[in-house]
Amino acid sequence: MKKSILTLILFSICINVFATETKLMVRAKAKDAKFVGSSLGGAHVIIRNTLNGEILAEGNTVGSTGNTNLIMKSAHERYTQLSDDKTAGFLAVVDIDVPTFVRVEVFSPINKKNAQVHASTELWLIPGKDILGDGVVVEISGFVIDILKPNTHQYIALESVPKSGLQIEANIVMMCGCPIQKDGIWDSNLMEVKAMVHKDGESFGEVTLDNPKQNTFEGRLQITEAGYYQITVYAYNSKTGNTGVEKINYIIRE
Predict the structure, then answer these.
(1) Any bridge partners for residue 213, and if so which?
(2) Which residues form the signal peptide (predicted)?
(3) Which of 52, 70, 180, 187 has an alpha carbon within 20 to 30 A of 215's alpha carbon?
(4) Which domain holds residue 246?
């Protein structure tokens, strides 16, 4: 028994002696936008050994969303680095003794479950061969959409609905938290934003949502009957192929 324990200890020591510290920078970048950083709570990163599922490193991206002019307004030649030392990322440090095939999993944005995307990629890590700079950049598609009006499971009296219609309001930003507005860098003029409405499980109609101010999209829904309603707000940019969706349910009562 003592010999077995000693053998395990010696084996563990040998592994630690021959293992080499290897660094891997991981960044989450919103589609058609900037990096996911501290301003949105970051993205959660997990690095796994694909052979046995062992987690080699885990943590959140921290830092800024990056340089807007460099990322969004400049032409990029080959080898152009889009990040700097302040740009959000997660620096993983793993100890490996042989080349290891890993899966990099990113959950982003970590604090917005309704919009969260799980994206991943795979690559070989070689002992002592660091991957730094921009590192591994995982693209996060979508929009963060929060329907503000009406509220989830809100009971609304039919008589209280204005003649102009029930207000629908949504807050929409890029997946890095970058702002959307008319004629802005992220131009709402290029985006189709609509509310698809169902009543009692049947299609009821669509409402186009306008963008009167930064990140805010609004429209009015004509309602004349009580029932169970569902609103699905979607955003679509045909130029980039980026899409996002949010749903809520509410009740109109007599």
Answers:
(1) 216
(2) 1-19
(3) 70
(4) 143-253
